[in-house]
Specification:
424 residues, Rossmann fold, 2 domains, 7-stranded mixed sheet
Length: 424
């Protein structure tokens, strides 16, 4: 089943942005750089929330990064050097992210960092990495509208997640939905994502009256009133929810959704921040049939992915990690694992851990990830990748019900992100 028509794909891939051109020019003109470490190890910073509201999602990114590090070290390391992980816990505190980032760069002298989940945490550390000329791999889907010479973005851009998901729901195969409830956590990603989604829907002819937008704070637990509004909104049919709720708030939201008699058949939820790992902490009985848009699922049926899934489960069991053999992989876990190996491949290509030379080596680099071949854009620090729509199964896994043909090139700057479009 095709998610996007050839005409639509051509239009999406043809969107050019001045921001990308300006970024390429600025990045190429940088003269300051982090000097290569003279130690006999390569220091990798891991900057993820291991406590607080985002721990439900971020702990697994630390775990899979450690698995990749152990694999690489067992295979001889990188350029003959062993990787030394430096793990810090910003504890879901956005200001703490900047403090811990500075600690990693100025005190620990890490060569590279893998970290952040929320966009507010990424934006908190961005100026730190630019100031210290460090290198951060950011592994989670996000709202775009950003490029930094010191950040490599392995998660999806809006045209690799948001737009294809909305387009699918509007299609005959996706249910031909006419009404959209945009519900998110109150911070950068959901706000910008919903601006893009709203402007896209308006451009596609959806009346403004058929689009509702609402936000809740991090760790919000009481969704009774909001779900009541959704139920009323969906009473006449043709309605769906586009959810950018993050962290542990997803648990009470889906539970309340079911408590009030709503289901995937009456009002499907298309989630942008719920994957297999979050589903481990949820009662999947009332989640069956709801949707998500990602670029990887554990259920991808390839020998490489079967091997990756098995390795992660056995790693968690052997290390005595919570969940053990029952652990799952998901999109951000996959892109974290891929990011570590992309860094390894780039360092080996450059012959050094010097940040500028590693970034240069990453340009256009291809890698056979567990989920399939991906390619780093030659200019904008993002990955070309496929787009997959998944339907939640009772066992907490996803059936892949739609996917694009080939890789979708990343477009960090969306044409639908302008504030004034919705006013037209």
């Amino acid at each position: 089943m095709k998610l996007l028509s050839k005409k639509t794909i051509s239009a999406v891939l043809g969107m050019a942005t001045m921001g990308a051109l300006l970024f390429t020019s600025c990045a190429g003109g940088s003269s300051s750089k982090k000097s290569e470490s003279s130690d006999d190890v390569i220091k990798m910073g891991i900057l993820h929330s291991l406590s607080g509201t985002m721990a439900i999602s971020e702990v697994s990114l630390k775990d899979v990064a450690m698995m990749a590090i152990d694999e690489i070290n067992a295979d001889g390391g990188i350029l003959g050097k062993q990787i030394e992980p430096v793990i810090v816990d910003p504890a879901s505190d956005w200001d703490m992210f900047a403090e811990k980032a500075k600690e990693l760069l100025a005190k620990d002298k890490v060569d590279v960092t893998f970290g952040c989940w929320t966009s507010v945490s990424r934006k908190s550390v961005l100026p730190v990495y630019e100031e210290y000329k460090g290198l951060l791999f950011y592994q989670v889907q996000y709202e775009g509208q950003e490029q930094s010479p010191n950040i490599i973005y392995t998660g999806a851009t809006p045209n690799q997640q948001l737009i294809p998901a909305a387009e699918y729901l509007m299609s005959e195969d996706g249910g031909d939905y006419k009404k959209f409830y945009l519900l998110g956590t109150d911070y950068v990603f959901p706000r910008t994502a919903n601006l893009i989604l709203k402007n896209y829907l308006l451009a596609m002819g959806v009346p403004a009256a058929n689009i509702i937008e609402e936000y809740t704070p991090f760790h919000h637990q009481d969704y009774q009133t909001i779900v009541s509004k959704i139920k009323k909104f969906a009473a006449e049919g043709d309605a769906c929810v586009l959810s950018t709720i993050n962290g542990d708030s997803n648990v009470p939201f889906y539970k309340e959704f079911a408590n009030q008699g709503l289901s995937a058949s009456t009002c499907p939820i298309m989630a942008f921040s719920v994957a297999e790992d979050e589903l481990r902490a949820m009662d999947t009985e009332f989640l069956t049939g709801h949707l998500a848009a990602w670029n990887y699922y554990e259920s991808i049926k390839t020998p490489e992915n079967f091997k990756f899934v098995e390795k992660f489960k056995k790693y968690c069991e052997s290390k005595g990690l919570p969940g053990g053999i029952d652990r799952v992989t998901d999109d951000p876990i996959h892109w974290t694992y891929t990011a570590v190996y992309l860094y390894k491949k780039a360092v080996e290509k450059a012959g050094t851990t010097d940040v500028e030379k590693v970034i240069e080596a990453l340009s256009g680099l291809e890698y056979q990830s567990p989920g399939g071949l991906v390619k780093m854009d030659a200019a904008n620090h993002h990955l070309a990748k496929p787009v997959l729509i998944g339907e939640i199964r009772a066992d907490g896994q996803f059936d892949i019900i739609s996917e694009t043909e080939g890789l979708i090139n990343p477009e960090p700057f969306s044409q639908y992100a302008k504030q004034d479009i919705a006013q037209n």
